[in-house]
Structures are given as C-alpha cells and as structure tokens.
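A favour, since you know our structure tokens better than I do. It will help me judge whether the discrete encoding reads sensibly. The space below this message is yours for that.
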Amino acid sequence: MGDPVGGHLNLYMFVVHTALLLSYFILCGILQWMLLCIYMKHSHIVYTMICFFAALVLLTCIHFSQFLKYGKPWNYVAILFCYELLTLGVTSFIVDSSVGAAIGIVMGAIFIWAGVLAACYALIRFVGYPNPYTLSGIGVVGLMISMVMVAVDQVLDSRICGEIALVIVMISVIIMMICHVLLTNDSSDLLKKEDTLLVAFVLYIHFVILMVTIFVFVIRDRRYSKPDESQTTVSSDTFRRATEATLDPTESFKYIWLND
C-alpha cells in the first residue's frame, strides 16, 4: 500500500514520512538548544545570528533550484546544512535563558505548533477550507503590518506597538503554516518522495519562528520589567547626610570624625 510508484507516495505514506523527518528535526534541535543554552557565551551571539540569516538565504536558494530539491544526494546535504545553520542561529535568542525557561518555551511552541497541525487536519477532513492562496495573501499582509509596527516601536519606544507586532507575526506564521499544509494536500498527486524532506523542513521552520517569537516576548517582558536602577540607587553622599541627620549630636560627632 505504501510502496512508492515512480518516486511518488500516496497521501498516507507521505504524511508518515514527513512526520518521521519532523520528529528527527525537532528532537535533534531540542538537544542542541539545551547544550548550547548551558555552554554558550553571550559573545557568541554574533556568530549564531550569522548562521540564522545564512540559513534563510540558503533556504531561498533551495526553493529556486530544482537540483537542490531533487538531485540526490545534494538535496539532503543542502537541507541538512540549512537545518544545522537554522538550529544554531536560534540559540541567539536563548543565550540568556536558563535551561528551565528554554524548555518551557520550547514546549509551549510545540503545543501551539501541534495545535495548528491538528486544526489543519480538521480543515482537510471535516471542513471545506478556503483557497490557500487567499489565506497566504492575508499572512503576507500580516507580516508587512508587523514590520510597520516594529518601525513604530523603534521610533516611539512604545511597548504596546512591539507586543502587537509580535502577536501579528505569530498569527501570520500560523496562517502561512495552514496554507502550506493545505497546498501540500491539494498537490498530493504531484508530490514525490523527495518532497517529504522539504515539506518537513518548512514545517520545522514554522515551529522555529513560533518559538523565536515566544522568546522575544519573554526577552521584552524581562527588559521592561527590570526596575530602573537610576531611580532606586542612593548616592553615598545622600546616604551620609541622611544618616547624620538621624543621629543625636554626640553620635553625629563620632560618625563625622570616623568617616572624615
């Protein structure tokens, strides 16, 4: 039932292969993130950010190149190299997090991501879903709006604008993920076995973006929740004058003589 014919898989086996690859991607990624969270230094963030952007550039090249999509073994080499760059790049956002916080955020992202996949199954199985291209347009518009909100946040230093931008990014990524699954389902008759690797990796990217968004939420909350030390710090001269004022004359004389 599940044997490929002419390089093609039926829908059931395509889903099974994709799920297996996804599990490998996520489990290996979690292991690397936990190790890097323990041993990575803050000074390494420059290198991890370079890895993050290099992964996005390489992924774009893979999408535009049929050779990198289907040419064995280079398609596996390209995807795995891109996967490793992306996984290392994500550590830029967890470098200042504890292992417990990182595990909590990763698990939260997994629950959201799995919930979206369950919603996709419900749409395909029980509901006549809308045109995926229309939904993808909404997702792209959402990303554009989020970029505008980020620019406003940088100009006005408004916390609420940054929070709204992150919420819009998360919603847009969820919409794009749903579109990706629906388009894959619509094209199931044309998909090859090699497509499972690319489909699984794109779903992994959606998971990573959701996780990064949650990390940014936490980082921003930590930054805005930090007390303003300039308002709470008391200078030594002020403390000395206050201390002198509360002493009786004899004790005040001893205090001044000992501290001068």
